[in-house]
Amino acid sequence: MKPLALALLSLVSAAPSPRDDLARLQLVDLHFYEGRPVSDFMQHRRNEQGTAPSPDPATRLDWTTDGCSVPGVSEALAKYPGLPKAFDFADPCTRHDFGYRNYPKSALGSRRDAVDRQFREDMKAVCAASRPVVRPFCYSMAEVYYAAVSGAGAKHFGQKPERTGRVEGGSLLEKELQPSQVQDILNNIEQAGQALGREKSG
């Protein structure tokens, strides 16, 4: 058999079958904890990270995350004591990374929207637990994050971490947020910090 034919045959045989993809989708569904509080997912993640990874790539799960890093956000939050915790979307980003990194690419149409919606709900839950005076700004910031991933995340869904991680320039959010969106986030932080200051001084 010619080398080119052998190479093509190797690629075809290495490609996951529909049955393999279905099994993978069902496995990730089991661990994604859709509809449950993000705290439940994080506890499950800690438990799973304490066990040996599966030797079979088909059942091995990637629990890594690049977080929610956005240029300037940490510095802006640090100016106002209390805001870093109130606007902490690290856990929602961790669950979102898990979904994007573990679902098969073939699930783009069926599962990507669900992963993005869960991300939005997880962030809203964080905001709901924050002080009422800063809550509207938190919700607004969450919507900007959601818009970034839902608008441009398709190319990252189902990709292995070495293709989506910091080697190529940071978190998904850091890559996909437009300058105007970053400015919206920073404006929300500034307004929330000022509102918090007025509440404390009053």
Automatic annotation (TrEMBL):
InterPro entries linked to this entry: PLipase_A2_dom_sf, PLipase_A2_prok/fun
Entry protein name: Uncharacterized protein
Biological source species: Hirsutella minnesotensis 3608
Domain of life: Eukaryota
Gene3D superfamilies according to UniProt: Phospholipase A2 domain (1.20.90.10)
Gene Ontology molecular functions: phospholipase A2 activity
Signal peptide, first to last residue: none
Pfam family, one: Phospholip_A2_3
GO biological process: arachidonate secretion; phospholipid metabolic process
